[in-house]
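Appendix C reproduces, verbatim, an entry submitted by the partner laboratory led by Prof. M.T., so that reviewers can inspect both the input and the predicted structure.
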Amino acid sequence: MAKITTSLIGEALVGEGPEIAHIDIVVGTKGSPVETAFMNALSSPSQGHTPLLAVLEPNVIPKPATLLVNKVTIKNANQAILMFGPAQASVAKAVMDSVAEGVIPKEEAENLLIIVSVFIEWDAIDKEKIYEYNYEATKLALKRAVEGTTTVDEALAKKDCAEHPFA
């Protein structure tokens, strides 16, 4: 029996400074609304927002196939290089490590699609931190998505005492 049968959502914030990683993830099966969103996003780039497939290296996509979409408008080549380099590679590696560790069942990987919303701040410059933070945030967001956390009870417990770092 399949472990992942519905659309899943996960989120994680990792790191600090301009290289901080904020990842939002949607996981779903082929044939579901996630596939429609995946295909629509991939085929609808706009200025400053170019969806791209995660790749371990050129010509090697992870399984499940994974689409990165940027949260922040890419305004220059340096920012694009961070998205099309360390962010792209770290997300792909995190997906494959999640499969290797059983977070995403290997036998389901070919039938799943993942959409990852990636934050690259305009002032970010450190490729190693971009890679490290996005790798960790992607793994954590995937784990949370599959485990169904945050639960309703967890969110209710935090609603009056939560401390948002940017609010």
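The chain has four helices and five strands. Additional entries are available on request from the coordinating office.
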